[in-house]
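User: Run a structure prediction on this.
Assistant: Running it now.
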Amino acid sequence: MIRKVADYEFIDLGVAYPEYFTGLALAFTKFSKYAIGVGNTCAEALKDCLGIVSQMGYDADELSRRIRIDYGPMPDEPTLKDGSFHYVGLRWN
């Protein structure tokens, strides 16, 4: 059974080198689950993140539609320096 995401927060964590990426947490938030995506662009990182959400048993297609409505299209141009990646996060209930 695929579960629906009730409430969520999308966070563009920006570009960072893997050894300096600070991560994402749930402390002091209203959310109980999270996922982080990584890619060469924001759009690629979101796709990666939604793949994790799907693997956790949630409806990633419906969540993807909601994110695009709430936040608009994700930039798909690389903004990287050599060896860095773009990171995004999702927190949800």
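The CA atoms of residues 24 and 89 lie 7 Å apart.
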